[in-house]
Amino acid sequence: MSSSVEQGSDSVEPTPTQTEASTGSMLTVTIGATVPTGFEHTAAEEVKEKIGVDAKISKDRGRIYFPVTSDELHQVHQLRSVDNLFVVVEEYDHYQFKESKDETLTELQELASKLPWTNALEIWKLNRGLKRKKHHRKGVNQTKAKPGSETGDVPAADTEHPVPPQAMSASEGEAKEDNTPDLEISEQDSQQAAPEAKIIKFRVTCNRAGDKHSFSSNEAARDFGGAVQEFFQWKADMTKFDIEVLLNIHNEEVVIGIALTEESLHRRNISHFGPTTLRSTLCYGMLRLCRPQISDIILDPMCGTGAIPLEGALEFNSSFYIAGDNNDMAVNRTVNNVCHIQKRRANKDSTPGLPIDTVRWDLCNLPLRTSSVDIIITDMPFGKRMGSRKKNWDLYPSCLREMARVCRPGSGKAVLLTQDKKCFAKAISKMGGLWRRMHTVWVNVGGLHAGVYLLKRTGATIGQTTEEVNEPQEVVNTQEDQTEDKDPSC
Ligand SMILES: C[S@@+](CC[C@H](N)C(=O)[O-])C[C@H]1O[C@@H](n2cnc3c(N)ncnc32)[C@H](O)[C@@H]1O
């Protein structure tokens, strides 16, 4: 079998840095990770810090790629900034799609049998083993946290839904190609070891973005999936699949991968979801922006389900967190989420309790001493699912003023998330220099374009500074190459 697709020039040559390599019995593969859009550099920073490798940030916003060896796989699952993980089978930076739809789809079909699947499938097997161990530790009766109407980040690009590969009857006894990896789910490997489960079930998911394609993602998934099925003799199953093959197409970038996560890792902390629960990966990005220090007092005065302080208490646990909300249900959810994690941790060794307290309060009148808080980090009502735009015109100035009162002048910081940018900008201008805007990261929250504003509490005293001023906003990019401070939608 030929090892390269018969296509002109270098159009389908794999990128050398992404090529899988074997180091003795240790495999080196490229891991792809979806991350909250806007926080790609934060995720790359975390990968460098925890795994020690440089990550490449994809042109396709919301994805990073980095090399790992097979023994580092468990570390990859510990990353806090990543939503979904996959192992790259092959990557093409400049795939030259044919003009006609038929030719392109035929080429995608041919590609399936020519890809270097072996190492990626080995990693998938290893990953399966890791998941088994984790489930054993958790106990088999563990139920999945059910998200409510949670706001989730969606890729900025138009992602289409997975479609079934064309049903194709595999011809019995057909000789396998030599490079077909020998892969069967052993009874030991499969928890539901039904005899028929020995045949691998799979699905192909195509995520496509770009307007210059002659085909839809459904067509690409169907034809590529059909060829994968024929090549491996796997069985297509859209719901109970063992392997999810990903076909990610972004303009001329094509990445074929195998999923390593069944559900996004951002659900890790929350068992009691609310109407606007923030994904933990986004919370992590917000927390990193304000760089918590040992013994910092960190406040989320509008905590909802407590997603931000919980992520902080788990990951930056040398600080102390106070979570508050004026809604009883929200406070209860936070308490339940904290308890749930405390219980989970109590089953392990002798891990100490979480450094977090929960209070019911009105943010505009906090029961806290002036200048007693180091960092305020919160997700404000956008006025869409929570609160209203009209109410925000009163709420935003009052809360910015009260936050300025409790935050330490000169050194205090705030990281505030909102989609109501106009109201927020106006409210800040009314603060007369209590807050200075340092940096903004533009993110996508449930399809809404929102800003994460890093503010610094200036030394200005409250009372002197309530009139509206056109304060020159000092813009300092605290993270090099991070998203521009300018709102592209304005
Ligand atoms: C966008 S939600 C926060 C969601 C939260 N980050 C989560 O992950 O669940 C905003 C929260 O602000 C709360 N809120 C609104 N006005 C408030 C006020 N004056 N004082 C305290 N909390 C308030 C709402 O009850 C709501 O829970």
TrEMBL record:
Any one annotated GO CC term: cytoplasm
Keyword Transferase listed: yes
Keywords: Cytoplasm, Methyltransferase, RNA-binding, Transferase, tRNA processing
Chief location category: cytoplasm
Sequence similarity: Belongs to the methyltransferase superfamily.
Alphabetized PROSITE patterns for the sequence: THUMP (PS51165), UPF0020 (PS01261)
Biological process, per Gene Ontology: tRNA methylation
One GO molecular-function entry: RNA binding
The keyword Cytoplasm belongs to this UniProt entry's keyword annotation: yes
Subcellular location: Cytoplasm
Segments for region (Disordered): 1-27, 132-194, 465-490
Name assigned to this protein: THUMP domain-containing protein
Sequence ranges assigned to domain THUMP in this UniProt record: 154-260
SMART domains attached to this UniProt entry: THUMP
CDD domains: THUMP_AdoMetMT (cd11715)
